[in-house]
């Protein structure tokens, strides 16, 4: 085994050491994903999801199902590594992977627009205090069609998220 020095990038995640700890971001990865799906005419967005839009099951013809699955996979990777802020939107959109519609694609475009607009955001981990904290929330029966709730959680250590998720 060979010591290559301090880590710079690992699995597309940029690691920066600062005086107070570490910062992790996926700026380069996000730029690649936004570029890959640039044909969606991505517009900057301030939030990853518009809660006023009710996404429903597509009873019509599927629109670019394989590409939709690719977009969801790309967003899931970002959500799992450093971008917990898009977890809810990605979870919601992944429910339509078997038969996406134009509306679902518009919502994907919004998440991409949000990432484009916030690509410099980083997870910040401070050296001290190393206190483990956990938070959760739920929306009770948010989906009228199946009467299921959605829950989300995050655990932080040193002020930075170390585990998070959202499930229906």
TrEMBL record:
Domain of life: Eukaryota
PANTHER family, alphabetized: GAG-POL-RELATED RETROTRANSPOSON (PTHR11439), INTEGRASE CATALYTIC DOMAIN-CONTAINING PROTEIN (PTHR11439:SF440)
Name assigned to this protein: Retrovirus-related Pol polyprotein from transposon TNT 1-94
Originating organism: Vitis vinifera
């Amino acid at each position: 085994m060979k010591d290559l020095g301090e880590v710079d990038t690992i699995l597309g995640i940029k690691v920066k050491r600062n005086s107070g700890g570490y910062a992790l971001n996926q700026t380069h990865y996000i730029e690649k994903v936004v570029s890959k799906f640039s044909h969606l005419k991505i517009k900057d967005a301030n939030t990853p999801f518009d809660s006023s839009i009710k996404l429903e099951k597509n009873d019509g013809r599927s629109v670019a199902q394989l590409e939709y699955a690719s977009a969801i996979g790309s967003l899931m990777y970002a959500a799992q590594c450093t971008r917990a802020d898009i977890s809810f939107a990605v979870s919601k959109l992944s429910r339509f992977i078997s038969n996406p519609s134009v509306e679902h694609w518009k919502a994907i475009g919004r998440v991409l627009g949000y990432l484009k607009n916030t690509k410099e955001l980083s997870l910040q981990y401070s050296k001290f205090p190393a206190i483990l904290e956990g938070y959760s929330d739920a929306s009770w029966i948010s989906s009228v069609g199946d009467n299921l709730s959605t829950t989300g959680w995050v655990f932080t250590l040193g002020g930075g998220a170390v585990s998070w998720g959202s499930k229906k």
